Each structure stands twice: as structure tokens, then as C-alpha cells.
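FORM 7B - TANDEM STRUCTURE REPORT

SECTION 1: FIRST PROTEIN
SEQUENCE AND C-ALPHA CELLS:
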Amino acid sequence: MMIRSIDSVIRMLDADYIENSDIEEMLMGVCIDSRKVVEGNLYIPIRGVNNNGHAFVKQAIDNGAKAVLWERREPNPPKEVTVILVEDTTKALQDLARAYRNQLDMKVIGITGSNGKTSTKDIVASLMAQHYITQKTMGNFNNEIGVPLTLLSFSQNVEVGVVEMGMENLGELSFLTNLVRPDIAIITNVGTAHLENLGSMENIARAKVEIAEGLRDGGMLIYNGDQPLLKDALRAAQLSGGIALRSFGTQQGNDYIVHEVCQQKEGLSFYINDVACHLDMIGKHQAMNATAAWIAAKALQVCEAEALKGFESIEKTGLRNELVSFDQALILNDSYKSNPQSALAALDTLEEFDIPYKLAVLGDMLELGETSDQIHYQLGKDLKNYHLQEVLTIGDMARYTAQAAFNELHDVYIRHFVNKEELYSYLKPYGKKECMILIKGSRGMKLDELVDWLVKGE
């Protein structure tokens, strides 16, 4: 975490202040949630759509905040601690993170993509940790608030920082990458996530390539070379600054080729060029994410033996392709996000397991735009390529998936549910059956709650 005196923070922000306490006192990290403030924090009250963090400053101080940022337009600044005056606390958070990042002598790896950002982050961090003091984005803190908080969470002695960066519109990734200033950037892929906002796959590719704008001179961009849209966007971007390009994929012509991918109960085996690898994760698509991480590790002189060891000890972020025991059954919990590409990848993973009875629980895929009904219907048609005994859907759009599945699958039980409670009641007895249940949906569907209910027996 950032450890700086109050005076140092004032100078980093070039801000005015109200000195209610000793400005030589040390601050121990930052916090934007008054409920989670601990002794020594700098409290940064964010003005949101529904809440204004300034209203909770007393709670923050009671919990141990030693100083606060404060927007000038806000009345009644606190008198108990030093108040650092700013025009906008969100911008001040970002400015503070930028200043702190520039003070740290570390290499930064930035990661974006429609799918696989978080898994790739976890793999990269594991490989780097075999050789360097490494920290990474916790959870999915990958937006204009989360990325600054990630940077400010890094310790003074960190050697490699791994930062996940998300986006929903053009220009957002450009802002984040210029805040992070990565030495290495990874684009995992281009998919239909955020199609509703961006309008076309070409625009999604353009938005992802923005990550290169913040690369330091002499940096490296690692990208999925199997996707023509991404290659076209890279050519159009006309990258400068001596940036090295490295591609990965399953197709010939890539710098690093993934092949002979095999899902096993104990993990994933595959080759990167001529190197045999084993990854402590499930899902064949993870071999692509692992290859991107491998390239980054080589670029920072992590040796082959260290990288291979890193593949075996991934500290995984939850709700993504995780196996959870449900009495005698297994749940493949992939409930954090969903789009057509990640849904098919999850179904591919389910297919790899030699379990006699399989159920696919499919919730809405959000933010797909005007063609969302068609995309959901196509997913239902694609289910004919899998050996499923039941297809269970939930959500307004998932009705189209159920409809297509009903038309395509004649020996499969298909049912649509109107709420999670009804679905839970249906699934609860399956804990006594040897079966595997895939639970897949966008975050807004909150299907992780369903997983919790099943596992905890609530």
C-alpha cells in the first residue's frame, strides 16, 4: 500500500489544505468506503450516482482515517483531521495514483480483452511471483476507480505490478493505460462484450488496441494473433515508440503457437511451441491465456523452469471456471460474466469431463445490444454440439436460448425459470446425484447467489 506523509500527499496533488492535525503524520493506504477504513487510512469520499461519500466522513474518522480528501463545493469539512481540498475527488484519486505509480521502480503488465482478463492476470502474477516481488489487481478492480485503487495498493518494494483494465466505451482504455503506463500490454481477445455500447466488432477491436497508447517506449504488446479484426486494428493504430509486437494463438504464423491442449481432472496440459506445460486451471481456452502470460514472463527474464512452476500454483480469482462441490454433484461456477464466446468456452469445459449427467444453467448475457435476442437464440442452437441432459435458463433474454434449444435438442430436458428461488428449488435434489452443473450468466444475473445457496444448503 502507499505509505506517505500527509504533507507528501498534499504535494503529490499540488493541493490546498486545512491543517487540523500534524501533516507530518504518516498515512497507511487509501480507502473509498467509510465502512472499511482502518487506522491510518486516507479517506477519499467519492461522489456516486446514489451516494456521496462526503456524507460518511464521520464514520471514516471514527474508524481511524487520519486525513481526508474534500471537494471544495462540499460544506462542513471535518475539524478532527487534516482536510486536503480538491475540485473532484475521483480525479484526485486518479492523480494521486498516477503520481504514486511514477514514484515506484517497478515493471507493469497491463491486461485487457473481452474475455480472459482476470484469468490471464492471475496466471501472469503467478509466473512473475516465481522471480519478482509481485502484486496484482484484486478481484476485478479494473475501471476508472478500481485501477487507481490497484496502483495505490502496491507496496513501495513491488517489482512487478499486474493490472487488469476494462472498458465499456471508446476512450476509456486510453485513459486507463496512460494512468498505468505499462511496460507490457496484453490483449487476450476481441469478443461481443459491450457490443451494445460500441456498436460493432470493429469498434470493440479499436477500443482494445487503445491499451498500446500508454505503453512506455520500448515496451511490448502481446496479442491474440488468431483474430483478423485485432490484427487490422493494430495496423490501423500505427504504433510508435519502438513497441515490440508478439502474437499468440493456435494458427501457424503466430510467434507462439498453442497446440495439443488436453483437459485433465488435475488441470490442463498443452504445448507452447515445443515446451510441454501443465496449468492448474480448467478450460481449454485457458491455454491461450497461459501463453500470453508465458510471453510476458520471457520478456522479463523469468526462466522456463520458474514459469512452468508458476503454472502449477495459480492464485485464482473466484466465480470464474471454478469447480465447487455440491454434495455428490459438482458445480462448474462461471457466474461472473457471460457473452457468446465465454459461454461456449464454459460449455467446452463442461464437455471435457467424463461425468454421465450434465446440466447447463444459462442466464442472460447482458450488454449485447439490439441483436441480443438473436445472439441468445444462436447460443441455444449451438447447444446441439454438446452432450447435455438438461438445459435450464433464467432471464428475459435467455428465453430465446431455451426456445432455440427446444427446437434443436430432442432428447434433452429444457426448462425456463422466472426467478432464482424457483431454479434453486429445482436444483437442490441434484446434490444427491452424480452429475455436473454448469452455472453461467452475466454478473447482473447474480447467479453466484444460486451457487452459494446450493453449496451452503440454504
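SECTION 2: SECOND PROTEIN
SEQUENCE AND C-ALPHA CELLS:
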Amino acid sequence: MPDFMILSKDVPDGPAIRARVRQDHLDWLKAPSDCTVLSAGPWLDDTNAMRGSLLIVKAPSREALDAWMANDPYARAGLPKNIDVRPFKLVIGRPEGL
């Protein structure tokens, strides 16, 4: 299965959206799926405010990844202003068993 890097930038009212759906998003990331989250977290601006997200995900295919991402509570709430998905080769930090 290939790895993918997902980099998203939040809409201007992102902090309010994050606050409202953050727990649902975290639960979704941890839920069993064909896609496995290897690493995830927000990226920060100069004031340490969350302004977007970075995820490294192992997925069966790009199509499977797109279907999985469509169910993200952040995406359903309109948080991402844009999303960039790229193939990624994780060299250091791969969890055991993957």
C-alpha cells in the first residue's frame, strides 16, 4: 500500500470550526479503516495558532484515500480551504508491523 501526505490549509474561521468538531475528527482518525494514519497533527502559524493539518496516511489507493477523506468531520464541516495530496515515502518513523 502506498503512503500519502495530506497538507491542508484552513478557512479564515478555522479555529471556530476546529473547536466545534475536533473530538469527532480525532475519533474518526482513530477509527478502524482501510486507510491507516501513520502521523497527523496541525501545522501552526507564528503565534502557534492552528492553521491547517498534515497527515501521513497509508492507503490501498488514491481512490480509497479520497473516499476516506470525504468522511473527515473537518472536511464535512468546511474546515479546509484547500487540500494538497501527494505520494509520500516514509523513511523514518514507520510504525512496526506496517
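SECTION 3: OBSERVATIONS ON SECOND PROTEIN
The longest helix spans residues 14-30.
The chain has three helices and four strands.

SECTION 4: SIGNATURE
Preparer initials: ____
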